[in-house]
Design brief:
single chain, 385 residues, alpha+beta, eight-stranded antiparallel β-barrel, six-stranded mixed beta sheet, 20 strands
């Protein structure tokens, strides 16, 4: 049987009750939550979707192996939410019952799909702190009795061939492994990294340092008090070459340091090799995606001090001009470029994250040089006019 995700992607949903309507009864309140639950998936609204799960909530998929707690299900589903391709449903014939104390509800509903026909969802909700939360959702495909024996035979044959529980694709499997590894970072969970990393694994990090598996496991620690965060894998692309697969992905890191929010993005290339029937990570290279630089304010008098011509070699000049409150520079034979201020005397080409242009002054305060700084290497341009 194909994975639950492959099924979900082909379903269609139209909510029967708007999320903003006020429920008129406990049963209606439960239905409103279920509609909001489906609608969030239809819109790829990951935050809302998983907020409707109870902390100990469970999702049961169509495959016998697919029993996920909330954390595991979110790790599995996140890459698809991130791509904007979560699943949608068209529910009908929903039945809701309540416990005598009104704190627990159980339901079943039919779900129509253009590709898979009639499906069924069922489960349990619990009222927690005044709000209904999904404790369990079970997705199934009702099987006509006349077809049961044939379908069971196909499932048995698939299991015998070793294909019955395979992920929908290599990409799905590698993304799941990668998200598990990212989730283990904040927890300092060495067991997950030990399981996924090959013994000869090497990491080239964003600073250019190279680490072995043993070194990484030794450094892995839970986040200290006052720190929290998560890393979500997005934009996965995989290329498979025999028993080797290369996965590139964008890693979005949200972090809080004593209630101050930080956000970073990384582009990672992972190389996996299948060993003893399992994918093992043998190499990883991480590049940081620089955030846009902040622009400082510099007064007009200071800008005027930079205006002039600077020489690198005979015939190779860089002319600095001012237009209003904006500084421009132009090298001989090249287009004019806008310069943004990082601070007084330090500028960078607008829209770039590497390199600086530093105006150097003599002891009297006069600008005499323009230093073109590239990765801490300096090219010095002497002022000639």
């Amino acid at each position: 049987m194909r994975s639950t995700l492959a099924l979900l992607l082909c379903l269609a949903f139209v909510p029967s009750l708007g999320a903003t309507e006020t429920p008129t009864s406990p049963t209606a309140a439960v239905e409103q939550v279920l509609d909001a639950f489906h609608a969030a998936a239809a819109k790829a609204d990951e935050k809302t979707y998983f907020a409707l799960f109870a902390p100990a909530g469970v999702f049961l998929g169509t495959d016998a192996t697919e029993r996920w707690d909330k954390t595991a299900f979110q790790a599995f589903a996140h890459p698809y939410f991130a791509k904007g391709t979560a699943w949608t449903f068209l529910p009908r014939n929903r039945h809701v019952d309540l416990s005598a104390d009104g704190r627990v509800a159980w339901f079943d509903e039919l779900l129509d799909s253009a590709s898979y026909g009639e499906c069924r969802g069922s489960g349990v909700l619990e009222k927690i702190d005044g709000a209904w939360k999904v404790q369990q959702y079970n997705l199934t495909i009702p099987l006509p009795n006349d077809l049961a024996k044939d379908v069971v035979a196909q499932i048995r044959a698939a299991k015998a061939a070793g294909t019955g529980t395979a992920p929908a694709s290599v990409e799905d499997e590698l993304v799941q492994l990668t998200q598990r590894r990212m989730d283990a970072v904040g927890l300092g969970d060495k067991a997950v990294w030990d399981e996924i990393l090959a013994e000869d694994f090497t990491l080239t990090d964003e600073e250019g340092a190279i680490s072995t598996k043993a070194e990484i496991l030794d450094q892995l620690r839970p986040l200290p008090a006052g720190y929290s965060g998560q890393i979500r894998v997005a934009e996965p692309k995989v290329h498979v070459h025999g028993d080797v697969a290369v996965l590139t992905h964008l890693d979005r890191e949200d972090e809080k340091v004593f209630d101050q929010a930080l956000y970073s993005e990384y582009r990672t290339t992972d190389t996996f090799q299948k060993r003893d029937g399992k994918w093992r990570l043998i190499a990883s290279q991480v590049l940081v995606i620089p955030r846009p630089r902040k622009v400082a304010s510099v007064d007009g008098t200071t800008l005027d001090a930079y205006v002039g011509r600077y020489q690198l070699a005979p015939g190779v000049l860089y002319e600095v001009t001012r237009e209003g409150d904006t500084l421009f520079g132009q090298r001989t034979g090249r287009a004019k470029e806008e310069l943004s201020a990082a601070s007084a005397d330090t500028f960078f080409r607008k829209g770039t994250t590497r390199g600086e242009k530093v105006f150097a002054r003599d002891p009297s305060g006069k600008v005499t040089e323009l230093i073109d700084r590239r990765d801490n290497n300096d090219l010095v341009w002497k002022r000639v006019e």
